[in-house]
Every structure is written in C-alpha cells, then in structure tokens.
UniProtKB/TrEMBL annotation:
This is Oxidoreductase. One of its GO terms (molecular function) is oxidoreductase activity. Keywords: Oxidoreductase. SUPFAM superfamilies: NAD(P)-linked oxidoreductase. It comes from Actinophytocola xanthii.
Length: 290
C-alpha cells in the first residue's frame, strides 16, 4: 500500500488531521458577554499537540475560513510556524457563519476572493497550499464560483484547487470549468454515500479526502466483524476502519480529527495495517451505499 499521494506538486501522507473541533465549538453560555465560539481545550495545549502531531508523522492538516470565523486558521499559523516547511495546510472558502450553528453557502466571486485574501493573512503565507470550495452556492452560477478560485490559482495565490461535498454529477460539471486536484466529502466504512465519487476521483487523478472517516453510520461501533478482524491483526477497531478506507484506492486520504496524541498515533498505525482480501470483503459487506 502506498502511504503517500501527490496533490498537484504537493506530496502528503495518506492520513491527515482534521482540525474543525480544535477551534469551532459553540459555547453553551449565554448573555451579552459570552463568547460565540470557544475552543474545546487550552490554546497552549493545542499548539503543543499540533507540533507533536507533525513530529509523529502528520504532514497534512485541514481547516476552513469558517471554523470559528478564521480562528482555526490563526491557530494553525501560530502552531505550525516552526515546522511550516514540513506540512501542507488545506483550507476552504465559500461558507458564511451568521451564527455558531448556521453554515450558509456563499459563492459570490467577490466574497470568495475576499476570503482567500483573509486566509492568506491568517495563515501568514503568500500562497495557500490547497483551497476547496467549501460548499457550492446554488444561487450563484457554478462557473463564477470556480472562476474566482481559478483566478487565485493563476495569480499564484493558491497551489491546488478542490471542491467539497459534491455528487459525481456535480463533480463532472466542475471539471468542465476548472481542473481540480482534490475532492473532500464525508465518507467512512459506515457511510458510503459517495462510493461513486471515490471511483470518479480515481479516474480524474484527483485525491479523495474523506472527512468524518470514523463515523460508523450503519455499522455498529462494536460490530463483531470489525472486532474480530482487529483482534486477528493485533490492531484497534479504529485502525481497521481507517485501513478499509485506505484500501479503497491510493488516492483516498482520510482526515480524522482528534486532540489526543495517543489517538492520533493510533490512527497513524492504520498506514501499516495490511488487511487481507477476506478482511476487505467482510468489511465491505457490512454496509452499502446509502
């Protein structure tokens, strides 16, 4: 199994780190002085964790301009400054946040260009590694949304382009307007809604970046099949679920999120887990596309 994949001129390990929950948790307090967003743990601890993650082998982290209104990008800029040359940072534009619980697609070209400039500033760089259109805005022509990203790429402000949470039909329409290097969709052993997008990205030579890769969905977390395979390999159930994802193609890149170094290192162990053909058949039969 190949453990690296190239997105444009970026080569990454095929298991990254999602960071949404590091900066984006609606605070439960109310009142005029209560913060709208609050990090789930101490900022100093998060900085220490992120640097340790890189030392443990993580070289691809994922964020978005909408995570805590840009605070997620600022956190990564601070934490990764000493190791920036060792890591690829992906971000997303195209979603606004009127409130902590609302995620609203916002694809007007001027807004996307503005958000790219803000991401450059918050991430303290003059060129973003990978930028996704976070969600497609049905109220704005697709060509206009993609055109804004393509312009940023042509201006040298973005190295690689992607789209997020798209169907196979939409992806085909996207590729008629712009060449993309990555698609980021929800996907896991228990949620195979986008099986066809996994296959299509392989045909297109694009990465399929799986978020929520450990959401078990239709597969019970304590399913005896998963437990049996894990026990036979001396692995954890989490490693088995991630190894199944990695088996779907050399272009598949899961990005599980965690703030625990022990969990992160356990996740990385999936890169060394070689499932047998029988294992893969048994796991695949546990669920089917929604």
């Amino acid at each position: 199994m190949n453990i690296t994949y190239s997105i444009g001129d970026l080569t990454i390990t095929r298991l990254g780190l999602g960071t949404m929950r590091m900066a984006d948790r609606p605070d439960q307090r109310t009142g005029p002085t209560a913060p709208i967003w609050a990090p789930p743990t101490d900022r100093t601890e998060l900085v220490t964790f992120l640097r340790a993650a890189v030392d443990s082998g993580v070289d691809h982290v994922d964020t978005a301009d909408a995570y805590a209104l840009g605070a997620g990008e600022e956190l990564l800029a601070e934490a990764l400054a000493p190791v920036r040359d060792r890591i690829t940072v992906a971000t997303k534009v195209g979603t606004s946040r009127p409130s902590p619980t609302e995620w609203v697609p916002h694809g007007r070209p001027e807004y996307l260009r503005q958000q790219i400039e803000l991401s450059l500033r918050r991430l303290r760089t003059d060129r973003l590694d990978l930028v996704y259109l976070h969600r497609i805005d049905e109220a704005v022509p697709l060509a206009d949304q993609l055109g804004a990203l393509k312009q940023a790429h042509e201006e040298g402000k973005v190295r690689a382009l992607g789209v997020s949470q798209v169907t196979a039909d939409t992806l085909r329409e996207v590729t008629a307007h712009v060449a993309i290097q990555a698609v980021q969709n929800s996907y896991s052993l228990g949620d195979r809604t986008f099986d066809d997008v996994v296959d299509l990205t392989a045909e297109l030579g694009a990465a399929f970046v799986a978020f929520f890769p450990l959401a078990m969905g239709t597969v019970a977390a304590d399913d005896p099949t998963v437990a049996r395979i894990a026990a036979r390999h001396g692995a954890t159930r989490t490693q088995v679920a991630l190894a199944w994802l990695l088996s779907r193609g050399d272009h598949v890149v899961p990005i599980p999120g965690t703030t625990s170094l022990a969990h992160l290192r356990d996740n990385l162990g999936a890169l060394r887990l070689e499932l047998t053909d029988t294992d893969l058949t048994d796991l695949t039969e546990l669920s089917s596309p929604a």
